[in-house]
Amino acid sequence: MDAHFSRVANLYTDVRRTDRGPVDFIRDVLDGAGRITGTDIGCGSGRYSALLLECLEGLFLTCADANQSMLDELTRSFNDIHIERFKTVHARVEDLDLEDGSLDCVFSFNAVHHFDFPVFTTTMRDCLKPGGHGFVYTRTPEMNSQTIWGRYFPGFLEKETRLYHRAQMETWFEEVGGLELIAIEQFPYPRQCGIDELLWQARNHHYSTFSLFSDDEFKNSLTVFEDSLRRHFTNPSAIAWFDENIMLHLRRLDA
Ligand SMILES: C[S@@+](CC[C@H](N)C(=O)[O-])C[C@H]1O[C@@H](n2cnc3c(N)ncnc32)[C@H](O)[C@@H]1O
Fold this sequence. Notes:
The chain is an alpha/beta fold. The protein has helices spanning 2-8, 12-15, 21-29, 47-55, 68-80, 117-127, 141-146, 148-152, 156-159, 166-176, 195-203, 215-232; strands at residues 36-41, 59-65, 86-90, 103-109, 128-138, 179-193, 239-252. It is globular and about 55 Å long.
């Protein structure tokens, strides 16, 4: 998977759709918090880290990722737009060395399905200050099956076995102790775009799921995907569907 993220790093921010909803939700929760320290684990090329820094003026962010090319891309783009309140850490969450009780917030966007989730929950609990917040933005297998890829791209659901069920994540957070699950917010998104954009996204492996296909499997599935879309949608310039994600909001209990 590391090779996949190295390959897509320089295109990643362009090829993925970035939604403001989860960041607006975080901004509202942290409203008036003043100076805060946080980490974005699995930050990738930094599209959500950048939005967090834009919305939270008092935030200093440690951007952590297992892939150096993603972090290089993040640093390059942050330097271009003069974002300074960050540092990068090249580490897997399983090896991440964060001081106990040192942070106000832990964020993770679209990344927890790559992690050993129980290790991630322990890391979150240990590095948060009492009262600190955890925000986990992800999609479940059920949500994945509603995407345009889940519905029309043969093999997409069978290959993507890494996503966690909501109940399983809730149980892991309960089991680790010391964290309270405050809310699970749903973020539904009506989507619409042209077939060419969808084919471009798939060819550029905008979801890492595509890197789990062999070249031949991918080619065949892409052909069937395009045929199915042309049959199901009368206007190939306006293909419509719903995406959905959830945000788990947690709070570190007093020690
Ligand atoms: C799907 S991308 C999401 C990136 C970013 N959060 C976003 O939404 O654009 C997942 C990221 O998690 C990173 N990653 C994968 N496994 C990881 C691990 N065990 N620890 C930390 N980061 C990891 C990958 O390198 C990749 O950058």
